[in-house]
Amino acid sequence: TAIGQRADGAFLILTIDGRQPSSMGATYEDLIEIMMNYGAVNAANLDGGSSTYMVQNSETENNPQIITQCASLYGPRKMATSILVGRVDQINTQYE
């Protein structure tokens, strides 16, 4: 799992499904190459494995869907932190 940013300010978020017979995942060198190929000027490697999920919400309704989920023999792990990306005009700043 990695996050990067291009010179134009666009964010790049990458998850790679590995640790299975058809995929061994990615090395640090693989992540560097992928991020550079997409034009990243800054990038950071994040935790991977079973703590990696990518979820996308529908633009028309509140219906999050899991896009990628890394497998684990022990099931999903609880996560204390996450990175959320949204449009500024759709962010609700009112909290109860």
UniProtKB/TrEMBL annotation:
Instruction: Show where the Phosphodiester glycosidase domain sits.
Output: 1-85
User: Which terms are listed as keywords in the entry?
Assistant: Glycosidase, Hydrolase
Cite the Pfam families for this sequence.
NAGPA
Domain of life, per UniProt, equals Bacteria
Q: Which GO terms describe its molecular function?
A: hydrolase activity, acting on glycosyl bonds
Signal peptide, first to last residue: none
Q: Which residues form a coiled coil?
A: none
Can you name this protein?
A: Phosphodiester glycosidase family protein
